[in-house]
Design a protein that fits this description.
about 15% strand; 2 domains; six-stranded antiparallel β-sheet; 12 helices; single chain; alpha+beta; globular
Length: about 300
């Protein structure tokens, strides 16, 4: 499938999306100025140090563009390291590009299946990488979006097998360390500051209270950035509220702090006024907390 002009492009700087009129200001995925490839190329010339990013996800009805983002792919002599080479053997040469750093590789995958972002790490015989699906962007270098004819669903079997192995590993880890029980215990009632500090000592980390730090954590979290940047109109907001608060609870170590931080996310900011009032309602908040406390999220 020839991607251009179906794909949407944007400007980025230091891997952060930006507005060409305010290049010093980074933006959320839904605030960005979206352009076609020709306009993006022209804007790139006007803004010093900018690159072109491609916004991932649905490029037209039922068709999704995803990326496998590999790091540390080259040896000192410039050759591709063995595990990267083994993975690239599953793809055609036209399906990937070297990243802007010159040390990583982006593999572009076109599929009609809606995958979620995930991270491959420590799987036997598999190169570690991050798989980005919706609500993300990738800084492009040499990839030809206009003339490249990616094959739809060419790699679904490979992705499905990797996801299956990841899920098996996660389930095994849950059985070994009782993580599920620990997570349920975290949500039993409102945790005050003293207990939050004590839990921080126990876990060996400090509570996260600001979006800058949270996003820094999120770049290594397969779900977090996707959750806080989700477009509200595309999800069941009540269910997504639970998912968001439960996820933030892990980072803030406090239900109260999780609710405060949730209101700073792109997800909350893009709610309409009716849903914002619902989110801020004490009764709705208590019901959501009770639901999370039962370990359902």
């Amino acid at each position: 499938m020839y991607l251009y002009p179906y794909k949407i492009f944007a400007l980025s700087k230091n891997k952060r999306l930006l507005n060409r009129e305010e290049p010093w200001k980074t933006l959320g995925i839904y605030d960005v100025c979206k352009m076609d490839y020709v306009s993006a190329q022209k804007a790139k010339e006007e803004v010093t140090g900018s690159c072109i990013s491609v916004l991932l996800g649905e490029i037209k009805k039922g068709t999704y563009l995803n990326v496998l983002d590999l790091d540390d792919c080259f040896l000192e002599d410039g050759s591709i390291e063995p595990q990267t080479r083994d993975l690239l053997d599953c793809f055609e040469d036209y399906e990937w590009e070297v990243s802007t750093s010159g040390t990583g590789i982006h593999i572009y995958v076109l599929t009609s299946k809606k995958y979620s972002t995930f991270i491959v790490k420590d799987l036997s015989g598999c190169k570690s990488f991050e798989f980005y699906a919706d609500k993300r962007h990738i800084v492009t270098t040499t990839f030809d979006f206009k003339n490249n004819n990616l094959k739809l669903n060419a790699h679904n079997d490979l992705l499905d097998s990797i996801i299956e192995e990841i899920e098996e590993k996660k389930n095994e880890e849950l059985k070994q360390n009782g993580l599920k029980r620990d997570i349920i215990e975290q949500f039993e009632g409102v945790i005050d500051n003293d207990e939050s500090k004590a839990r921080g000592v126990l876990l060996g980390r400090k509570p996260v209270t600001d979006m800058f730090t949270l996003r820094g954590c999120g770049y290594k979290d397969s779900k977090l950035i996707e959750i806080i940047d989700t477009e509200p109109d595309t999800v069941d907001q009540s269910a997504h509220d639970c998912k968001l608060i439960a996820k933030l609870m892990y980072y803030t170590l406090s239900i109260d702090s999780a609710w405060d931080l949730a209101k700073k996310t792109n997800y909350y900011q893009h709610k309409d006024e009716r849903h914002k009032k619902k989110f801020d309602n004490p009764t709705y908040r208590q019901r959501t907390n009770d639901y999370i406390a039962k370990g359902r999220y």
